[in-house]
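Weekly structure sync, notes
Attendees: PL (lead), two postdocs, one rotation student
Agenda item 3: pending single-chain targets
PL asked that the sequence for the first pending target be pasted directly into the notes so everyone works from the same version. It is reproduced below exactly as submitted, 373 residues in total.
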Amino acid sequence: ICKNCQQSYAITIGDQAFYDKLKVPEPTHCPDCRLQRRLAWRNEKSLYKRKCDLCHKDIIAIFSADSKYKVYCQECWWSYNWDPMTYGRDFDFSRPFFEQFAELLEQVPFFSLLNQASSLENSEYVNHVTDAKNCYLVFAANYIEDCLYSSYIWECKDTLDSMFCTKLELCYFCLDCDNLYNCQYLQNSKNCSDCILGYELKNCKNCFGSVNLSNKEFYFFNEPLSRKEYLKKSSEILHDKTNFSKIIEKFHQFSLKFPKRYAHQINCEKSTGDGIKNCQNCIECFDGYGGQDLKWMINFPGETKDCYDVSGCAKTELAIECQSIFPGYDVKFSNGCLNGSVGISYCVYVDGGKNLFGCVGTKKAEHCILNKQ
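Predicted structure, written out during the meeting:
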């Protein structure tokens, strides 16, 4: 029985084997409550203006000015102008660990945004992002350039207002799509170019308002047209903004006539969930690719193996109850750990490191408890 919501939940033999493998106790909360607890640590999109607590410059941060936590700007946090080890303290065995950990959290400065700062160029207003150039208000994304107002996009360029997409270029308002070029208002589509208003399109070109088509060109609401007819019709609609809004509503009604796929999985084996591809033995997993032996995972863009209850990770193995791990190995109950953390438990905002317990803000540290060597 979940200690939080009082609902029953199952722990399978396979789950028990995984917990034994990582030497952790069985969870006392159900999967939904565990997800809520994780996401309480993950502020993706709420940005605030405040001052850096070290250099006092105006900055953008995920912590408001009245937050009880110290916050440093990206430049200061990653600099050598402060030492997180100076906040170290001895562990007091007469007091609960979490009391002492909470005190440390209030002392050690947090970084203003959870980004890999060294991989960003002209991308000040992004969060949970690595490898970005000329991007604005993009969240939870990697390997992007000239992108705006989007979330959960990977390897995209010149893309706006899109979510859960990979390898898009010159695209607008796309959702759950892969490998698109010059497309607008597409959902659950892949390998398409010059398409507008589409659902479940595959290998299509110049299709407008169409659903469940494969290897088609010059189709208008699932009807074939000549190239000349298609270009004339589509051009007339696109140049009339008032009429185009009506066409969008017409497309929504039109799409309801077609059967919908039960789940969106590509090249997956023995897996459940949605929005996943190239996965094996992934149970209740969503929005990721390249996973193996995972359970209750969200947002895992590549090379993730043997993990339970993680939200936001890549190149991660043997992790449980974490969020934002890039990359990591043997990571437990931690938040915001970057650049190859190994063998860490109950850590927050650490840069790499090995064999850490209850540490905050450490950089490439090893064998530390509560920031003490």
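Discussion points:
- The helical segments are 13-22, 31-39, 74-77, 97-105, 227-238, 241-255.
- The mean pLDDT is 94.
Action: rotation student to compare against the earlier draft before next sync.
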